[in-house]
# Entry
Amino acid sequence: MKFRFLIVDDDGAFCELLSLYFSAKGFEVVATRTASEATTLLQQSQFDLIILDWYLDGVDALDFLNFCKDRYPEIPVIIFTGAEIEAFLKAALAGRVEAVVRKLGSLDALSKQVCKHLVKGEVKLLK
# Structure
């Protein structure tokens, strides 16, 4: 089974980087730069995981996160952001997202979270 996930990040370079990185590891990746396109993709296709940037052009990421969790509560969401998320916001996100990963870290940290929150025991990253 090939896991499929959606990347939502307004930075095209990050969309491309993450798409290449995870595709090379055996995942099927769909990337978009807008929440409106991501909404359409979610309504048309099935995804196993969402990687969501905190800052999106033209929409509050919290609104998009709430949409995802209200309509697709079974899909894990990982926030992948360059922003420092304050303690009060982390508390508000508790139970709504599976993890918050800083973009300044390595992609290994994101990979570990991706594997952790997909079906346990079935995910092995290709080296």
In short: The two ends are 18 Å apart (CA to CA). Residues 25 and 127 are 7 Å apart (CA to CA). The chain has one domain: 4-117. The longest strand covers residues 4-8.
